[in-house]
Amino acid sequence: MAGPDNSCDLVRGSGNVFADFGAPDAGLRQLRATLAAEIIKALDAEGLSVRDAGARTGVAAADFSRIRQVKLDRFTVDRLLRILDRLDWDVRVEVSVTPRAPGTAEAPIAS
Fold first, then answer.
1. What is the pLDDT of residues 21-33, one digit of tens each?
2. Which of 1, 36, 49, 84 has the most crowded Cβ, counting Cβ within 10 A?
3. What is the pLDDT of residues 37-51, one digit of tens each?
4. Nearest to 84 by CA among 67, 98, 105
5. Structural contact between residues 72 and 33, judged by C-beta atoms closer than 8 angstroms
6. Which residues contact 85 (CB under 8 A, 6 or more apart)?
7. Is residue 58 within 8 Å of residue 87, measured between CB atoms?
8. CA distance to 46, 53, 70, 71, 95, per residue, from 27 (Å)
9. CA separation for the pair 103, 45 (Å, rounded)
10. How far is C-alpha 88 from the geometric centre of its chain's CA atoms?
11. How far apart are the C-alpha atoms of 31 and 8, rounded to whole Å?
12. How far is it, in rounded angstroms, from Cα 110 to Cα 80?
């Protein structure tokens, strides 16, 4: 009797997991996740607890907890950038704009 077929296909991702899984607003979600990761790095680099970070920045400790848990629905890009600024971190954002390949439509970013 033959065992289960353990073969699998290797699929190269686009670099944006949200787009790979067809999430709406994938670019926006990826940007928020990247900024949240930078906030977590900043907290870790300075050894700040969420309470310490809250006291230092005036941002609620609960918000830092949400960021650590990657619960980002409540956060705008602007708000995440302001949090990094309050942590005394400089942020440089580079934007490149290119046309999408046919058949790869993504929902527009809500304003």
1. 888 899 899 999 9
2. 36
3. 999 999 999 999 999
4. 67
5. yes
6. 91
7. no
8. 29, 28, 16, 17, 12
9. 42
10. 19
11. 30
12. 17
pLDDT at position 83 is 97
Residues, the chain: 111
3-class secondary structure per residue, the chain: CCCCCCCCCCCCCCCCHHHHCCCCCHHHHHHHHHHHHHHHHHHHHHCCCHHHHHHHHCCCHHHHHHHHCCCCCCCCHHHHHHHHHHCCCCCCCCCCCCCCCCCCCCCCCCC
Of 36, 37, 17, nearest to 27 (Cα)?
Answer: 17
Q: Give the list of residues 6+ apart from residue 29 with CB closer than 8 angstroms, or none.
A: 18, 23, 72
For 66-73, what is the mean pLDDT?
96
Interval 76-92: pLDDT, tens: 999 999 999 999 999 88
Which residues, including other chains, have CB under 8 Å from residue 51's CB and lie 6 or more apart? 61
Which residue, chain included where needed, has tokens 């906030």? 39
